[in-house]
Amino acid sequence: MKKFNGRVLAPGSYKGKCIVSHYGLNTLATFQSSAIKGSKNVIASDQNNPDLYGKNITGIALCLPQTIGSTTGGMVLQVICSMKTNPACLLFSESIDSLAAAGTVLAVVWEKSDIIVIDGLGKEFLETVKDTDTLEVSPDGTVTIL
């Protein structure tokens, strides 16, 4: 069992599986296809992210360094949260970027989303956590790899 502490941007509790990306998450490329189709689950469609491509990321903890991509990134996060197809958690090893932060605020305030967002978990977090590990996330920003 290993614990990491980060900064809470959107609090909540979670216990379950995770998916890990060592690449930046391009929100538009990852979520766009599922959002346009109105899918019940997001199947990551960013072909440039081999860690996520083709995986169902709805309702799971997504561990990543940061988001990348176009200025639509925040809006795309808001949209998938409004559709209730978002990951349960976005757990950033680095500081959150402004676009993902804006999308988080829009999702929580406008959509009443229960998405959990924590940043600053550190490089060691992303080096330690593995796909399908079980995580426990606490409202205070503690992420425990069980």
How does this structure look, described?
The protein has 146 residues and is α/β, with parallel strands linked by helices. Helices cover 27% and strands 27% of the residues. The protein has four helices and ten strands; from the N terminus they run E-E-E-E-H-E-E-H-E-H-E-H-E-E. Strands 1-10-9-3-5-7-8-2 form an eight-stranded mixed β-sheet, covered by helices on one side. Strand 9 (134-137) and strand 10 form a beta hairpin. Helix 1 (27-37) runs parallel beside helix 2 and helix 2 (73-82) runs parallel beside helix 3 (98-110). The protein is globular. The termini are close together. 45% of the residues are buried.
First-residue to last-residue Cα separation: 5 Å
- Any idea what the shape is? globular
Q: How many helix segments?
A: 4
| Main beta-sheet annotation | 8 strands, mixed
* Parts with pLDDT < 50 across at least 5 consecutive residues: none
Which class of secondary structure composition applies to the elements?
alpha/beta
Short description:
This protein has helices at residues 27-37, 73-82, 98-110, 123-128; strands at 2-5, 7-10, 14-20, 25-26, 61-64, 67-68, 89-92, 116-119, 134-137, 142-145. The chain has 146 residues and is α/β, with parallel strands linked by helices.
Task: Pick out its properties.
single chain, 146 residues, 4 helices, two-stranded parallel sheet, globular, alpha/beta
